[in-house]
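A favour between colleagues. Tell me how you read the following sequence-structure pair.

===
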Amino acid sequence: MKLRIPNGEVQALLSETKYSFPKYVTQIMNLANSNAQGTRPKVVGQMSDLIQEFEGNTLLDWEKWYLEKHPSAIKNATEKVYLMVTLFKEAILKINKEMVSDWVEELVILKTFSGLKFQEAILKKIALDLKKTYRLAEPSEEAKGIDGYIGKMPISIKPMSYKSKLTLNESINIPIVFYEKTKTQIIIEFDIEYLM
């Protein structure tokens, strides 16, 4: 026999008190906490370490032990999160349908395009730095592995992970610009002497 215990049920089974929140409220508080960083270790302690250090058995033992060790943590975290919730309330009052439409349009049109078609941004950035012109490759050039040109030099744009595959049979006889996309930026790497 297999039993599954959802996280919410684990909490209910271990707790004598049932916390109750209106619909959507915990989502807002989670987002506010994420922005305010109210429950970070520097505010409430490193929970994974504290629970290992704790020697009691019951929820009441844990509550007593934790509050003795961190008497201001709940209050400090509450202040940080509540301040952010207050800022959210002010922001929500500024949202209208036109703003939601702008946000959806930016996400669907601009962010999708820039997230998926960033090769031009890479070409343009290198060209600006080298004070050269750039252009994207034509379909017939793409078939030859060319993604664009810096000045008159054809280049290929590949992810950093491609470096480990360069020993494969594929041979690219033009300069390669390597990139890595992170959450906040695109990191590019290339041999400048080929583009001068």
In short: The longest strand covers residues 153-159. The chain has two domains: 7-102, 114-195. The CA atoms of residues 39 and 77 lie 6 Å apart.
